[in-house]
Amino acid sequence: MSFFKELFHKTEQILWSAFLKPFFFSFDPEKVHHFVVGAMKLFSPIFYLRKSFYHFKLSGKNHPSLEKEVFGIKFPNPVGLAAGFDKNAEVYKQMSSLGFGFIEIGTVTPVAQDGNPKKRIFRLVNDNALINRLGFNNDGVDKIVDRLRNRGDVIIGGNIGKNKVTPNENAKDDYLICFKALYDHVDYFAVNVSSPNTPNLRDLQNINDLREILFPLIKENKKRETKPILIKISPDLNDSDIKKIVDLSFDLKIDGIITSNTTLDRNNLKSKKKLAIESGGLSGEPLNKRSTDIIRLIHQYSNKKLPIIGVGGIMSTQDALDKLKAGASLIQLYTGFIYNGPSFARNINKEIIKSLN
Description:
Elements: H1 2-24, H2 29-42, H3 44-58, E1 68-70, E2 73-75, E3 79-81, H4 92-96, E4 102-108, E5 121-124, E6 129-132, H5 141-147, E7 156-160, H6 171-182, E8 188-192, H7 207-222, E9 229-233, H8 239-252, E10 256-259, H9 273-276, E11 281-284, H10 288-301, E12 308-311, H11 317-326, E13 330-333, H12 335-340, H13 344-356
Parallel strand pairs: 3-4, 3-13, 4-7, 7-8, 8-9, 9-10, 10-12, 12-13
Antiparallel strand pairs: 1-2, 5-6, 6-11
């Protein structure tokens, strides 16, 4: 049986590399994304069959050596899907069947919004990267909550933000609205103050503004069973500011940090200048080193006491291992999944298992 399972996954990888990836990469990235999400919803029984028949030993999702308890949650494996792919909580069960140990939905805002004008996603194939300036496009927290009511055993992170029209001085209200609405439907929260695609949002990484946002969430959290709260930060912060956020996390008893969001840095890109200078956040391979360096910085500065979710530029199984070695408790994929296809999370899990032996 294991032979046929391995054959299935090898066939899946060949199909992706030889046919599906070239086909998908010939179309607009956002249109492809909507097509894929729609197809996953339409053919969801196939994903559930895949999960039940192939998943147990092949993906490593349920392999006991991969299980990890972080900030009070028992994760079946440390490989998660980063926020931005399943913004509206439409395909988290299908994505779980591909070997992801947890899914982060969002970014979610109180009121639905369309995001920035299209075209707003660009592939930088020569750099194994993407640029996006989506701008928190989502269906709004109420619709997203409805889709999470029957989530089953999938571990869900709720990535929350503010609406574009909400001024920064009122941002704390938007975060609290999302926090309250999602509370009973997610396992942890990611406070997103680091997207470059909502005007002035990154200003909220200032310690005083960040404290203003976190206080109401912490107060509300104490009224309930308490859910882990993490801060998602920008890779463009200097090391001094990152250390201040670590200090604030200890001061407020924040449960962890997600590093990192997309970058505005455009140094040393190979892609054509016209494409490389598109506004928005850059993700993928060019972000890998900086993201890993920040993980190492936080891990060392916090004396290994602050859990870290490492995300940014994981384009190979070795990139994933490097982030875990640098101090990440968990990791997340997005651009690497787009480039490597449906077997990527499973392949990383297999390499993690090998590294533990």
